[in-house]
């Protein structure tokens, strides 16, 4: 009930089974989930002193390995809400090919997300690929190059093209983020999402959706692709 009161005060609503308690500070990622200290250090260095409500509830859910549908307003800090637990899950850089992928609707957003991962992983040699025409063709010409990367940030069009051309291999991906999922699951993108999901053939795949709004049609569609998800809503639905 203490947790209930806390969630209410932060206007966090959750739906689903066995929802992990929120974290109230970033160091709790370390005390509760054994996250590496570099994460907290980089957060502090970037002046991220306290997690925002969506970060407080989404981070422990993703760290617990659960699938997530998160809905929180623009500017509420959704990027760190997935970047922190994904970097934790990746452990160390591995040169084994993409293990996590973030799909966002525009190149500008992808670039921002890329920047956040770079800042947050400072001091660790994670290889983050931002898929563009140029990086895709380099990797097509030198398939060995793909294996150097841990993480892929991309738009759906670019990614589907890469899959169809055999330029990207998603069979090792364990964490998939659909950012601005309401836009990604709009009518025009649905076939691309199907193709991306089919290419993520690893049975261990953990899926996460982040969005500012989740219209009921989109939510219904999202539910069909998720396994026992937890839904988190911050602020107005
Ligand atoms: P959203 O994706 O929900 O629209 P962003 O992830 O783009 O939001 O973050 C919005 C802004 O808030 C960014 O400038 C980011 O640096 C800042 N921010 C995120 N988390 C925190 C935090 N815990 N403390 C302070 N600022 C934060
Ligand atoms: Mg965002």
UniProtKB/TrEMBL annotation:
Ranges in a coiled coil: none
Domain Helicase ATP-binding, chain residue ranges per copy: 59-232
Catalytic reaction annotation: ATP + H2O = ADP + phosphate + H(+)
Family: Belongs to the DEAD box helicase family. DDX52/ROK1 subfamily.
Lineage: Eukaryota, Fungi, Fungi incertae sedis, Zoopagomycota, Zoopagomycotina
Record keywords: ATP-binding, Helicase, Hydrolase, Nucleotide-binding, RNA-binding
One cellular component term from this protein's GO annotations in UniProt: cytosol
Organism: Piptocephalis cylindrospora
Keyword set includes ATP-binding: yes
An example Gene Ontology biological process: maturation of SSU-rRNA
Protein name: RNA helicase
